Amino acid sequence: MRTRKVQILVIGVLILWTFVTYYILLHNSSVQSDTKQKEQQQLKQLFPKALLEQSKSLKISDTLVSFLKLRYMNQETSTTPKITIVAAEISNELQEQQPKTTATTSAQIPTKTYLANGEPVIPILVFACNRISVVKCLENLVQYRPSVEQFPIIVSQDCGDELTKQAIQSFGNQLTLIEQPDQSDIMVLPKEKKFKGYYKIARHYGWALNTTFHVGFEYVVIVEDDLNVAPDFFEYFLATHKLLKQDKSLWCVSAWNDNGKANVVDIGSPELLYRTDFFPGLGWMLTKDLWSELSVKWPKSFWDDWIRHPEQRKDRVCIRPEISRTRTFGKIGVSNGLFFDKYLKHIKLSEHFVHFTKMNLSYLLKDNYDNTFLKQVYVLPLVTFDELRRNLIAKEGPVRIQYNNRDQYKRITRMLGLMDDFRSGVPRTAYHGIVSFYYNKRRVHLAPSANWKGYDLSWS
């Protein structure tokens, strides 16, 4: 009897276990089915989004290709590199990249912004990366610097190159080293990968200028790590900085003459200065007010061509010298030595010290300059290039050669050995379309007709 009861109990337990097991398996199957359905629904939702994002990327690429074809195909090949602001504009299509928050190990920038006599402190901001030869630039600056207090040298290094850093630090307390903290890679469009260096330079410039002007300086002079400077480099900026505040039509002072080769400048007139619509760069001074304006829209690449665009320039001009106060020795860089051998290595560096601070430079103010320079040019004798080249001009003194279109301008400048390119329609060194130079011992003005209507962007 007891055996039968045990058998019945065992059978009951087995039946109960079977039902429990079945229920668990059924429940798990239902959960897995629901999970799979949810995953399928999520995939269905995500897949169109992925296609949409891919479509946007394709659309951007197609737009870029169409724009570049329309803009550059069938154009005459220039003797100078064709770097434009296109990539800077298109790069806005890329996802905004957040800089790394790595703390900088930079030294403290000098905080004194004015001397006891009221003169401004004007820092020399040197941009460096991975050139050990930056020591040539720094030795030059230290050699000619008239006052450590008024002209503190701040070297801003990107790239994180240790040997270059050591070379900079070898100058000790003669300068201050700051280091760009964001060393992250930069995402660029596929066709812009070869220009990635220009993106990093723009990022570096933005950071370094923000960092320096944040101290409170009214002026900053920018120098690249491959520049030598003339003996009166500091004197030049000390004399001209006041003009930037006095004349709102001026927005920079540059130490560079793009057409500064020895055979086309007046070696005997190192004191000559000009106004130019073309932004020269390569050793230049800007004000805090100008940086406040530009910094809020600073481009992601090709900052120098961006700054030459009418939207930034706003008809403002720079001052530039007859004979350059800077000279580049950097053949190798992001531009891979483009036109260095043909132009840059032939630029004449001034060897004479001109006491600019003792000169009256008011002739460079807009009203004074326009009332003399422009009027003088258009009353000069009109000659041809052939007459100039063969020295067939009877009268001594300055002359004028006229150009009427882009092709004519490029043909004449090539024959003269001048730079023939345009940026945003502006020829290098031009003022109101007039390019002034020295040839066969006389001043020559290559000028448009007297009824000139302004620069044409399509000439670039």
From TrEMBL:
UniProt cross-references to CDD domains, sorted A to Z: GT13_GLCNAC-TI
Membrane topology listed for this record: Single-pass type II membrane protein
Lineage of source species: Eukaryota, Metazoa, Ecdysozoa, Arthropoda, Hexapoda
GO CC annotation terms, alphabetical: Golgi medial cisterna; Golgi membrane; perinuclear region of cytoplasm
Functional summary from the UniProt entry: Initiates complex N-linked carbohydrate formation. Essential for the conversion of high-mannose to hybrid and complex N-glycans.
EC number: 2.4.1.101
Compartment annotation: Cytoplasm, Perinuclear region; Golgi apparatus membrane
Pathway: Protein modification; protein glycosylation
Name of the protein in question: Alpha-1,3-mannosyl-glycoprotein 2-beta-N-acetylglucosaminyltransferase
One Pfam family matching this protein: GNT-I
Keyword list, A-Z: Cytoplasm, Disulfide bond, Glycosyltransferase, Golgi apparatus, Manganese, Membrane, Metal-binding, Signal-anchor, Transferase, Transmembrane, Transmembrane helix
One BP annotation, GO: encapsulation of foreign target
Transmembrane domains' residue ranges: 7-26
One Gene Ontology molecular-function label: alpha-1,3-mannosylglycoprotein 2-beta-N-acetylglucosaminyltransferase activity
Reactions it catalyzes: N(4)-(alpha-D-Man-(1->3)-[alpha-D-Man-(1->3)-[alpha-D-Man-(1->6)]-alpha-D-Man-(1->6)]-beta-D-Man-(1->4)-beta-D-GlcNAc-(1->4)-beta-D-GlcNAc)-L-asparaginyl-[protein] (N-glucan mannose isomer 5A1,2) + UDP-N-acetyl-alpha-D-glucosamine = N(4)-{beta-D-GlcNAc-(1->2)-alpha-D-Man-(1->3)-[alpha-D-Man-(1->3)-[alpha-D-Man-(1->6)]-alpha-D-Man-(1->6)]-beta-D-Man-(1->4)-beta-D-GlcNAc-(1->4)-beta-D-GlcNAc}-L-asparaginyl-[protein] + UDP + H(+)
Family that this chain belongs to: Belongs to the glycosyltransferase 13 family.
Cofactor entry: Mn(2+)
